[in-house]
Amino acid sequence: MFPRQAGFSIVVAVFILVVMSLLAATMLRVQQADSAGTAQDTLSVRAFYAAESGAQFAMNRIFLDGANCGTLGLPGGAANWSDAAMLQCSVAGLSCQSDSLGGVTTYRLISTAECRSGGGDQFVARRSIEVKAATP
C-alpha cells in the first residue's frame, strides 16, 4: 500500500498518550495546590474567629464580671472548643494593658489563637486581634 507511512499511526498514538499524561499530571498538581490553599484559608478564618472569641471573653470578664488586667485570664490557660468546626483551635495567649486618665480606664487587649489541620501539624494558622475599650 503505502510503505513509507507504515507505523506512522503508532508514533502519533504514543505522542498523544505522552501529551495527555503530561496534561493530566499538570491538572493534578493544580488541583492539589488549590486544595492546600483552601485548607489554609479555612484555618486562617477559624483562627481569626478563635482570637476574636478570646477577646470577647476578656471583654466580658472586664465589663460584666469586674475583672481587671491582673485577674484576667483564660480558664485553664487556654480556651478550647468542642464544636467540630473549632475542634483543633485554641486561644494561645491573651495580654491586657490598662491605663487610667481622668476617671476613664482604657483597656488594650491582644488575643492570639491557633488552629491546626485535622491531620496533625500539616497546616497551622495563627491570628491575633487587638481590641481597645474604655470604661468611665
Structural account:
This protein is an alpha+beta fold and 136 residues long. Helices cover 41% and strands 29% of the residues. It is built from one helix and four strands, in the order αββββ. The chain has one helix spanning 8-63, and strands at residues 79-80, 89-101, 104-116, 124-135. It has a four-stranded antiparallel sheet. The protein is rod-shaped. The mean pLDDT is 80.
Class per helix and strand makeup: alpha+beta
Helix content: 40-55%
Largest sheet: 4 strands, antiparallel
Instruction: Please mark out the parts with pLDDT under 50 across 5 or more consecutive residues, or reply none.
Output: none
Count of helical segments?
A: 1
- Count of strand segments: 4
Q: What percentage of the residues does DSSP assign to strands (E)?
A: 25-35%
Order of helices and strands: HEEEE
Radius of gyration, rounded?
28 Å
Span from first to last CA?
Answer: 101 Å
Assign an overall shape.
Answer: rod-shaped
Q: Please, what is the average pLDDT?
A: 80
**In what order do the strands lie side by side in the largest sheet?**
1-2-3-4
